[in-house]
Automatic annotation (TrEMBL), chains A, B:
Alphabetical list of InterPro entries matching this protein: Homeodomain-like_sf (IPR009057), HTH-type_TetR-like_transc_reg (IPR050109), HTH_TetR (IPR001647), KstR2_TetR_C (IPR041490), Tet_transcr_reg_TetR-rel_C_sf (IPR036271)
Domain HTH tetR-type span(s) in chain numbering: 8-68
Keyword line: DNA-binding
Domain of life per record: Bacteria
Name the record gives this protein: TetR/AcrR family transcriptional regulator
Species the sequence originates in: Streptomyces lancefieldiae
Source organism phylogeny: Bacteria, Bacillati, Actinomycetota, Actinomycetes, Kitasatosporales
Gene3D superfamilies reported for this sequence: Homeodomain-like (1.10.10.60), Tetracycline Repressor, domain 2 (1.10.357.10)
Entry keyword annotation includes Aminoacyl-tRNA synthetase: no
DNA-binding region as annotated in the record: 31-50
Amino acid sequence: MATRTDAPTRREQILKEAARLFAERGFHGVGVDEIGAAVGISGPGLYRHFAGKDAMLAELLVGISGQLLTGAKRRLAEAGRVAGSTTGPGAGSGAGPEAVLDSLIEGHIDFALDDRPLITLHDRELDRLRDSDRKLVRQLQRQYVELWVGVLREVYPAVAEPSARSAVHSVFGLLNSTPHLGRSGSLPGRGATAALLHRMARGAFAAVAEDGRG
Amino acid sequence: MATRTDAPTRREQILKEAARLFAERGFHGVGVDEIGAAVGISGPGLYRHFAGKDAMLAELLVGISGQLLTGAKRRLAEAGRVAGSTTGPGAGSGAGPEAVLDSLIEGHIDFALDDRPLITLHDRELDRLRDSDRKLVRQLQRQYVELWVGVLREVYPAVAEPSARSAVHSVFGLLNSTPHLGRSGSLPGRGATAALLHRMARGAFAAVAEDGRG
DNA sequence: CCTTCAGGTTAACGACCGCTAACCTCCCTG
DNA sequence: CAGGGAGGTTAGCGGTCGTTAACCTGAAGG
């Protein structure tokens, strides 16, 4: 998460290209030879860096989920509040839950715009993992969702928990739609796109609250 | 689109099971033997009904896109208005564009809730098609999107066209999130889920209009 | 009763894929 | 200047997959 200035290592190159290829053609649709070719080496040379094709996917997916969760926790902490305590409502100290929600949305949008292949993989190739890895990824994802649900219900206390959870999943679907927004074509600049997505996410959440005790 | 009462033909069984399997494990992740086993026959027996595995996927994707577009056109026509004319604005006769938008949303939600595997395939396995089929599907999808964009801009005339198109894609992402909403688990009933999604879609669109000349 | 044909079956082929084995070649270090 | 490990290479094995070939069967029709 630290700002990197040095050149990317071979391992990172491989992961990046593998992510792009997996997103484009699916995990089973890409051969190890193609991944190797994408970084200038060929075929089995990858096995000097990874235990196998599965290991690349696992590292990608665990990395994505962990990065999302870590970023969200950091943003929640930066708001000067205490996260994760399930002890009950009313514990919020101050610093505007609305601002925290905005920060979460902003973070997710940044990720969706900067790492489109990863966001594609994230909800597409999960079932191709070994059981243990899949469980880990799902656990990280669940924590991420629950973190959002908690913040959302502080902003809109009237919304029941199942509705809040569904709403969060749906807004993820909205924010993760970036790969479909013109292949770097007509979209009116990154900033405008981010602003648009942010406004829509807030609008969708607000609509849940209007008569939203489901 | 007519209401069917007779038993499904073997071809339809195959398509349905293939859709489910493709959605679960990806096109390349499913073998023809599995598809055959899912309908009680085994392996190469499928070739009495389809030219090959690719043909099944093609028929599924073309069918989905066509069904969505046809349904949307019908709903637009049922509102007693004229569709598709690019001759300019101001041609709307009456019957509330808001109602048309609601009808489009309702139709898409019905599809997303009733045919989750298909909605998953729809934006996931498109690149596995032969060029001609892929072009056809993309053309149908584009018409569908443009139809939505037209209706949306009648409801919110201040929204610029690129913003409207992005907004439509994003709302599709929201509505298509149904596969992630609990594997038939805790979601509070089909009707409530549909209503929630509908409200969120409207809220997202409304938020585009608020200061939304992007 | 014979034919035909739709809709199956199993066997097998050829291609491809993930992975390993064996080998090579720098470059760094003592 | 050894030498050893990091990071490549090519050859090839074993398994899987899509597809075809050849054969079977039961029901419909004249």
